[in-house]
Each structure stands twice: as C-alpha cells, then as structure tokens.
Automatic annotation (TrEMBL):
A Pfam family matched in the record: Adenine_glyco
Any one GO BP annotation for this protein: base-excision repair
GO molecular function: DNA-3-methyladenine glycosylase activity; metal ion binding
Taxonomy of the source species: Bacteria, Pseudomonadati, Pseudomonadota, Alphaproteobacteria, Hyphomicrobiales
Name the UniProt record assigns to this protein: DNA-3-methyladenine glycosylase I
Keywords per UniProt: Metal-binding, Zinc
SUPFAM superfamilies in the cross-refs: DNA-glycosylase (SSF48150)
Binding positions for Zn(2+) per the UniProt entry: 18, 31, 191, 195
InterPro entries named in the record: Adenine_glyco, DNA-3mA_glycosylase, DNA_glycosylase
Protein species of origin: Nitratireductor indicus C115
Length: 212
C-alpha cells in the first residue's frame, strides 16, 4: 500500500514510523521519545494544554521549535507562578519574539493557570482529573489506521472534556485541541498500526500507574 493510504513512512534509519514527522530530526525525536508516552506531571500537562492552545491556526512544529522559549517565558509552566502574572507581564510577553505574540492566547494561559490551581484544589491534581477521562478499550478502535486517525481530529470524549473545562472557566480548550493533548500525553496511543513506536508506547501505557 502507498504511504498516502497507510500513513507510514520508512526513515533513513530503516524504522517505520507515522508519516507526520517526516525526516526532520527534532520532529522525529518528539515522535519517537515523547508523543503518546503517558505523563502524570501537572506542570507538563499544563504546559501541553497551553501550547496546544498556542498552536491553534499554526503547525505543532512551529510550537515545538519555540518550546524552550515558551518554557522560559512562562516560568517552566509552573501554574502557581503564571497565575500571578499581571498586565505588565502580558505586555512583556507581547514583546518576546521567541514565542507566539498573541494577546488572547497569552491571557488565556494566565487565566488557565488560575483555573489549574482551582482544579488541583477540587480534584487533587491535574493528572487525576485528566487520567480519569482516559478512554476505555471499547471506546477505541482495535486497529488504528491512517484513515481513522485523520478522520477523527476530535472524539466524544475530547468534546466532553472540552465542555467541562469551559464550564470551569478554561479557554482555548476546544475538542480538537483537547484531543491533540490526549494523543501527546498518552491518554490514547495514536501511533498508527505498523509504526515502530506503537508497541513501545503501549508497553509504557500498560506499565504506567494511573494517578489517584
């Protein structure tokens, strides 16, 4: 079958992978070592959800290549610190050429930091909240194909989470953004069937101790 139908490519190193990182070294490293591997760090979960918001209308590669700048600008995505940012910080960040200078998204990150604190107080941690939303086996396809992956940029579960987050006051958390977050943080394994990382990620997910 062709790459267009399988969604798989063979890299220069002979490994078969999902199509989307191409042959870009930084993208390959992200695909191989991060994407889909389960995460229970509240700061990393918060970071990813915020960066997915910044990605809206852009490519993830653009955000990935600015990620260290974002981390520096937003205090390592320590939401306790970001929650205390003021309008002066917004103006400072709007002048930072190393990040995406979008006032709405910057203010959204500060707002979401405040909401993250509230969530931790109510739920115990961000990790407990998000991992409670993990899809059950019967809610996932037995075999993930390229067609299934590209046809479903959002799911019923990501839509439900999005609605709940919005009720809690979070912003820039639409269903597609939430599903991309779920894919990256390991709540689902969306490495395409045949990708050399799929089994590795599934093994990591099985060994992962769910929070709470």
């Amino acid at each position: 079958m062709s790459e267009e139908k399988t969604g798989l490519i063979e890299g220069a190193d002979g490994r078969t992978r999902c199509f989307w990182p191409g042959e870009l070294p930084d993208y390959l490293a992200y695909h191989d070592n991060e994407w889909g591997r389960p995460v229970d760090s509240d700061h990393r979960l918060f970071e990813k959800l915020c960066l997915e918001g910044f990605q809206s209308g852009l490519s993830w590669l653009t955000i990935l290549r600015k990620r260290e700048n974002f981390r520096e600008a937003f205090e390592g995505f320590d939401f306790e610190r970001v929650a205390r940012f003021t309008e002066n910080d917004v103006e400072r960040l709007l002048g930072n050429a190393g990040i995406i200078r979008h006032g709405g998204k910057i203010r959204s990150t500060i707002n979401n930091a405040q909401r993250a604190i509230e969530m931790c107080e109510k739920e115990g941690s961000l990790a407990r909240y998000f991992w409670r939303q993990e899809p059950q086996p019967h809610e996932r396809p037995e075999v993930l194909t390229y067609a299934a992956l590209t046809a479903n940029p959002k799911t019923e579960i990501s839509t439900r989470i999005s609605k709940d987050l919005k009720k809690r006051g979070w912003s820039f958390v639409g269903p597609t953004t939430v599903y991309a977050f779920m894919q990256a943080m390991g709540l689902v394994n969306d490495h395409i069937e045949g990708c050399s990382c799929r089994a590795e990620v599934e093994k990591a997910r099985k060994a992962f101790k769910r929070p709470g």
